[in-house]
Amino acid sequence: MIWLVLITMALLAAAAILIPFIRPETATDPALPTRPLALRDRLAEIDKQAADGELSEAEASALRLEAQRRVLAEARSGEAEARPLGPQARKVVGGLSAVLIVIGGVGLYGLLGRPDLARPEAEVAASGDTSLERMITALEGQVRETPDDAEMWGILGGAYAQAGRYDSAAGAYARAAVLNPEDARLHSALGETLVQVAEGVVTDDAMVAFGAAVARDPSDPRARYFLALRKDQTGDRDGAMDDWIALLNSAPPDAPWVPQVRALVDQVAAERGLDVSGRITGSGGDGSPGS
User: Is this structure's pTM higher than 0.70?
Assistant: First the structure.
């Protein structure tokens, strides 16, 4: 694909070089010899109007300058292009130039280029981040135009979080939650970004956000997960394990977060020498992550 793009670009560049060499000559405008006469007649008319008092001297002077400027401009536009070579020689030179551009460009890229560094556009969009930053810029412009749109603030918060800008994500989610306080997802998303800002610690501010989420939706899985993590971080390990297992057992079929929670439960159980396989009966309960 990279070679196809390269060859196409080289051909376009060659065409741009070749066109001036093969373009037909522009004939000299046959009306050009009459322009000095037209200018003389126009100047005489202006002088007559000035003499009759129809124009002031300043107006007459301005009209004379304008008439001269216009005739000169027309004369330049009608001049034939300078062509030091004959028609056949120009075509030969143009053709050779085009061939050299194509062969030279492709050859140099073959010697010095790095086609292995080229990435498909979809891959670039997934990794980086030019497209993500463009989207963030567009969303920032949108919330400036509609500052009371809670959904748009939430989308902006998600984009910030994807870019690793957790402070900004927390601010956007907080704004969205203020505008739409009954949406539990906005509160739990705010809590998660506050945890990310604190590098994995479930802070008191995050607890407030998660508490607001479960007050509106007791089944919110994100809030329940982090509330259990808070228990684990503050010493209530058994309570945290009970909550995580309860979360797995209540998970709907094919819930996308089940594999991550099941993996965490298995890891913690292994570290503490616990057998929890018989306690997990929900969508992750056959002993394998994500089952």
Answer: no
d(CA 153, CA 190): 12
Residues 26-71: tens digit of each pLDDT:
544 444 444 555 666 777 787 787 778 776 776 666 676 666 666 5
Q: Is the dihedral of CA 230, 236, 237, 241 positive or negative?
A: negative
CA distances from residue 36 to 39, 47, 147 in whole angstroms, order as listed: 5, 16, 66
| Three-state DSSP class for residue 134 | helix
pLDDT one-digit tens code per residue, 143-152: 999 999 999 9
Could you write out the DSSP letters of every residue in 53-77?
TSS-HHHHHHHHHHHHHHHHHHHHH
Helix (H) and strand (E) counts in the chain: 13, 0
Residue labelled with tokens 């050859």: 107
Distance (Å, rounded) from C-alpha 291 to C-alpha 278?
14
